[in-house]
Design a protein that fits this description.
With 344 residues, the protein is α/β, with parallel strands linked by helices. The protein has 13 helices and eleven strands. The strands form three sheets. Strands 3-2-1-4-5-6-10 form a seven-stranded parallel beta sheet, with helices on both faces. Strands 7-9 form a two-stranded parallel sheet. Strand 4, helix 4 and strand 5 form a beta-alpha-beta unit.
């Protein structure tokens, strides 16, 4: 089980909002390199559970120092950042509370500057771009979000990059499309793997036949680790794309075929279109919030990461075939573990 550092070197990197799947990937990459780091979250119990339960965070070389913060209390923010040089920011908010994103970033930058933190890397999203105006979206694409969530994510980016321009802190942003992987729950694809493993219909948001781009979560950590070691990355923003494109239907076909050990096994899907999301939103606030983001299914944002590759070199990207197989294996293991034990 992870424990605070004792004899190991004090960490200089802090993962803020470390309990999610992206945090786990970055933690594993830093741990593999023997780089000390602090994992920062809202509760010590939550941090301990997250790092003890995930096999990808069973770090071989070093354990994270666990630190807590309260994003509403500037004193605890400063305390969590004390002694650190670099922050990787992955803080999530409820889907119906995106107005908090720029506020939390402003508090983070202020506390970081007060504690002498010199660099911050934000894990961003495609939301600030709005509807894509090009087949491939690179960093020069206009940031013209037409949704409230996109506007709040753009405002978050602006807070950070304006602080960089003012010399308050050195900053960079790594934007990701949607992602998937073993144990990843917050993904358009998550229920496909769980349903295939449990032998039920999968709930997905349509349309499901458009080409999409998904990043395999374990691939993110090594990229972030390299960016943190690349001084020229700061003061700029970057996109990270997936291993080509794939449709949601094809993901489902591959997952259900693996689950049934039959190459032509048909996926069982319950597809919700925009009208169905609106109806569901009458009773479920989270579903209501999905309505404005449905454009990502009808006109997906396909990231161009040429600039990132030019800076750090070729990036290892797991193929969809391998990524789906690994994610399906994890979902099957989780489903088996959740079954009640048979009486002897």
């Amino acid at each position: 089980m992870p424990v605070p550092f004792a004899s190991q070197a004090s960490p200089r990197i802090g993962l803020v909002g470390a309990t999610g799947s992206i945090g786990a990937s970055i933690a594993a990459a830093l741990g593999d390199a023997g780089t000390p780091f602090a994992a920062i979250g809202r509760s010590l119990a939550g941090l301990t559970r997250a790092f003890a339960a995930r096999p990808e965070t069973a770090l071989r070389t070093c354990d994270p120092e666990l630190r807590t913060w309260n994003p509403d209390d500037p004193a605890t923010i400063r305390g969590a950042f004390r002694g650190l040089d670099t922050l990787v920011y992955m803080v999530g908010v409820p889907y119906d509370a995106f107005h908090l994103h720029p506020r939390l970033m402003a508090r983070t930058v202020e506390a970081a500057a007060a504690e002498g933190v010199s660099r911050l890397l934000l894990i961003g999203t495609a939301y600030p771009f709005g509807r894509p105006q090009a087949a491939l979206v690179d960093e020069s694409h206009p940031r013209t979000p037409h949704t409230f969530k996109g506007q709040m994510r753009k405002a978050q980016e602006d807070v950070l990059m304006e602080a960089d321009a003012a010399g308050v802190i050195r900053a960079t942003i790594l934007r990701l499309p949607d992602f998937y992987g073993p144990g990843v729950e917050r993904s358009f694809l998550a229920d496909i793997f769980a349903a295939a493993a449990e032998g039920r219909r999968a709930k997905v948001v349509g349309p499901i036949d458009r080409p999409h781009q998904f990043v395999f979560v374990p691939d993110v950590g090594p990229v972030v680790r390299t960016l943190l070691a690349t001084d020229a990355a700061f003061g700029r923003t970057f996109n990270l794309g997936g291993a080509g494109t794939i449709s949601v239907r094809e993901v489902a076909e591959r997952a259900f075929a693996l689950a049934n050990a039959r190459p032509n096994a048909k996926p069982r899907l319950m597809v919700a279109n925009k009208t169905m999301l609106r109806l569901a939103g009458l009773f479920d606030p989270v579903m209501r919030e999905l309505v404005e983001m449905n454009y990502l299914m009808t006109t997906p944002v396909i990231m161009d990461d040429t600039a990132l590759e030019a800076l750090i070199g070729p990036m290892a990207k797991t193929s969809y075939a391998d990524g789906i197989a690994r994610t399906m294996a994890a979902a099957t293991a989780a489903a088996l573990a959740a079954q009640p034990r048979q009486a002897a």
